[in-house]
Each structure stands twice: as structure tokens, then as C-alpha cells.
């Protein structure tokens, strides 16, 4: 039983971290494009390589344009590394340990998932993508630090294996 709970908490936090990281590098690329001089080619294909989804994206048969790459990395249900797929997987893991995590953790994760799912059909996301990605990153931060009444579940989230985000999560927890 403990192994199942630990596994679910671990993967729940990893999926949230993945969604936040994808949002971060898309957001950074959008901001870099704002400062790029005219005529400089847009750098969307490297984002696909960074995510390790070259083959999956190539199977779509579309060029690596801003709209195609953003759709693939953000909303594509067939891409297991997309923000939407990651938050869906995190939510399923959270559902399986609902009695272990706090209501705040569940609400934050559920709210983030519903926000991303609904944004897939909202034209404002396409017109204001910086705000969308900022909110996804913020949701990851709130999830990471949002549980103070259930320290054991939070410790499981905070102590998951490597990553700067994991270290940031545990900055207020005592060393074990």
C-alpha cells in the first residue's frame, strides 16, 4: 500500500513539474522572439528536440511553426509530454491518493488541469499566450508549495528525485 501511495505521489509531482517546465521553455521562446531582429528565423523546432518528441511531432506531418509547436507541446492529447497530457496524468495520480493529499493540493491541481483544458478552446490563449504560460508556471509553483497541513504528502512531493524545481520545493522543509 505504501509503495502504491509513494509511487502515485512521486508521479503526480513529476507530471506537474513536466507541465511547468514545458510552459517555461515555450514562454521563454515567446519572449526571445519579441527581442529578435526582423528576418531572424523563429526557433520552434529546437523546442521539439528539447522535449524528446521529434518522432512523435514528425508523425504529424506539419512544419515546426509557432502555432503547430505550441499546439503540440500544450494541448496535443497524443503527445504524452504536452502540458494538458501531463496535468491529466498528474490529476489521475492525485485521484488515486486523494485521501493522502490535502484538499488544497487537489484543488490546485484540478484548477490547473481545468484551466488548461478550457484554454484549448479559448481564442484568447492564442492571442495572449504569454499570460497563459505564466499562469501554468504559477499553478506549478502553487501546487509545489501549497500543502502545509499534510506535511507527509508535501514531503513526498518535495523530495522527488532530481531537478532544480524539486530543490526549490523543499527549501522550507527540514533535512531528513
- Secondary structure tally, helices: 10
Task: Give the termini distance in whole angstroms.
Answer: 22 Å
Largest sheet: none
Helical residues, percent: 55-70%
β-strand number: 0
Sketch the topology as an H/E string, one letter per element.
HHHHHHHHHH
Report the average pLDDT across residues: 82
Rg over CA atoms, rounded to whole Å, is: 17 Å
Q: Would you mind describing this structure in some detail?
A:
It is a single chain. The chain has 10 helices and no strands. With 176 residues, the protein is mainly alpha-helical. The protein has one domain (2-169). Helix 1 runs antiparallel to helix 8 and helix 6 packs antiparallel against helix 8. Mean pLDDT is 82; it is low at 147-156 and 158-176.
Quick rundown:
With 176 residues, this protein is mainly alpha-helical.
Topology at a glance:
Layout: H1 2-35, H2 45-51, H3 54-58, H4 66-74, H5 83-96, H6 103-119, H7 123-127, H8 129-145, H9 151-158, H10 164-169
Helix pairs in contact: 1-5, 1-8, 1-9, 5-6, 6-8
Amino acid at each position: 500500500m505504501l509503495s502504491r501511495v509513494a509511487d502515485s505521489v512521486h508521479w503526480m509531482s513529476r507530471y506537474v513539474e513536466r507541465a511547468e517546465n514545458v510552459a517555461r521553455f515555450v514562454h521563454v521562446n515567446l519572449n526571445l522572439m519579441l527581442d529578435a531582429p526582423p528576418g531572424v528565423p523563429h526557433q520552434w523546432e529546437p523546442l521539439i528536440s528539447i522535449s524528446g518528441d521529434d518522432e512523435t511531432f514528425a508523425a504529424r506531418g506539419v512544419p515546426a511553426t509557432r502555432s503547430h509547436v505550441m499546439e503540440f507541446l500544450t494541448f496535443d492529447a497524443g503527445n504524452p509530454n504536452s502540458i494538458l497530457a501531463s496535468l491529466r496524468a498528474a490529476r489521475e495520480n492525485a485521484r488515486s491518493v486523494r485521501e493522502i493529499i490535502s484538499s488544497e493540493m487537489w484543488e490546485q491541481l484540478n484548477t490547473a488541469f481545468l484551466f488548461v483544458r478550457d484554454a484549448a478552446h479559448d481564442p484568447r490563449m492564442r492571442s495572449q499566450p504569454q499570460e497563459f504560460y505564466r499562469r501554468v508556471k504559477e499553478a506549478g509553483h502553487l501546487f509545489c508549495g501549497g500543502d502545509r497541513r499534510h506535511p507527509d504528502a508535501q514531503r513526498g512531493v518535495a523530495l522527488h528525485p532530481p531537478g532544480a524545481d524539486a530543490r526549490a520545493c523543499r527549501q522550507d522543509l527540514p533535512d531528513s
